[in-house]
Amino acid sequence: MKSSPLKAIEKFDTSRANEYGRQSRIALAGYDACHDLTACMLAASLGNTSSARILAVGAGGTAQEIIAMAALEPSWHFTAIDPSEPMLEAAAQQLKANKLLERTNMHLGQVDDLPEDKLYDAGTLIGVLHHLEGDDAKRKLLQSIRTRLKPGAPLIVAGNQYAYASQPLLLDAWGQRWRQHGASPDEVKAKLGKILQGADPPHSEAAVQQLMHDSGFGDATRFFSSLFWGAWLTRKTI
């Protein structure tokens, strides 16, 4: 049975939101580097611009993509959208601590809830696609984002790829990383079981590229990789 978008949202409850920052930095080696490079890639893509409006989809939790971009580009403004209220609240707390709430519009809901007549200069979609089951749901989200971007606008897509069980060495290394950070053998086993059952990532980089092409984006440039994780920059086709 296919999981519904609601079930994907329900995974990110208050308990998960409260631990998201620490857990993410263990699960993704190079978490902060990926977000820092996201800011650099978008700045390089947009060139010299006095201001830019950035759509950050799935920014709940740490809001790290916004924090990184705001530090690099003080004139940029952001729209953060997330369907999970606890995750969006956690992001708001991080943005408040970094004095960025005044530069960020916060929206609880789906991308489809945003107006189509206010286009963004760029977008980010980090750590989201692998939580959506099936290519149709992934394409739908990418197409919704595309509708809200200016022609030729860059989009950062980052998340897990590969069918996890097809990469036993990477999966074992992922478990070893948790062990490095103090997880017991039983905790590592539980986390491995959870990742195998709790997500549906694209099964290859070629599959990521195909999803982007099918959704109205051009060829993507990969700029970051860490075990299962990859990060790419693509552009809305005109």
UniProtKB/TrEMBL annotation:
InterPro entries: Methyltransf_12 (IPR013217). Residues 60-154 form the Methyltransferase type domain. CDD domains: AdoMet_MTases. It comes from the Bacteria. GO terms for molecular function: methyltransferase activity. Keywords: Methyltransferase, Transferase. One of its GO terms (biological process) is methylation. This is Class I SAM-dependent methyltransferase.
